[in-house]
Amino acid sequence: MKLHYNTIRIMIGGVYLKKMILNKRVIMFLVCFVIFMWIALFLKLERNLWIDQMFLAVHKNTFLYNVFGFISWFGSKWGIISISIGSIIGLWWLKRNYYAILLIFIGVLGGDFVNKELKSYIGRERPLPIEEGFSFPSGHAMVGLILYGFLSYVIYLEKQSFNWLSYIIIFIIVLVGISRVILGVHYVSDVIGGFAIGGIILIGLITIYDLLITKTASNLQKDKKITF
User: Fold this and answer.
1) Catalytic residue (choose from 32, 140, 190, 197)
2) Domain layout of the chain by residue ranges
3) Active site residue 186
4) Looking at residue 123, what is its pLDDT?
5) For the whole model, what pTM was predicted?
């Protein structure tokens, strides 16, 4: 069977692109892992981190406190639940994207479980006793990155580019992390650690999602050939 030159070139280019993306994800995974382990090790050894000197909290009942309190809601328990339910309904109603729905469900619940276990193990007290529970890693930053990061990737694949909605989602992720420090409920290292471990889980979810949709697309191509 002869293949056209352009077909061969596309095939080779596709394989190269997949390898390049995979290599980038491996690098990002390792970076997130090293950052998380570095912070966790320092905390277990009860050593202070210089980045936590940037801690800044605003007074309650101020405009700035209320603004960041609203932003923080997007990473809170009810915020995550609300956005997750809305996203699941939207993905089912508009796209019947069952893979994305399943991975959102697994990612959010799994991320919350891992976060609670890590907080219990590290046992770091919060900078200010405003909220209950331990401080490291930040659950808002961690689970927020998992949910919003995955949604951003699904939108990216759908549009084949980052559109305004993807950028808004990324902006929200960053602001949620900043809000936790400004509200005085987390140290900077808590947020960075939350983003790091959340990034590890997010990379895993994205990789699984790619494998699932690639396998589905391959099966559809085989079915078309058989039908033809």
Assistant:
1) 140
2) 5-227
3) yes
4) 87
5) 0.83
Would residue 59 show up in a list of annotated catalytic residues for this protein? no
What is the structure's pLDDT at 165?
80
CA angle 71, 138, 46 (to 5 degrees): 140
- CA pseudo-torsion sign 130, 131, 134, 139: negative
Residue 63 pLDDT level (bands cut at 50, 70, 90): confident
CB 204 within 8 A of CB 149: no
Mean pLDDT of 40-66: 77
Q: How far apart are the first and last CA of the chain?
A: 18
Show the tokens assigned to 83: 């956005």
Cβ-contact 148, 166 below 8 angstroms: no
What number does CATH give the domain 5-227? 1.20.144
Which one is catalytic: 186, 191, 192, 209? 186
Task: Quote the DSSP letter at residue 53.
Answer: G
> How many helices (H) and strands (E) in the chain?
7, 0
**Mean pLDDT computed over 64-80:** 91
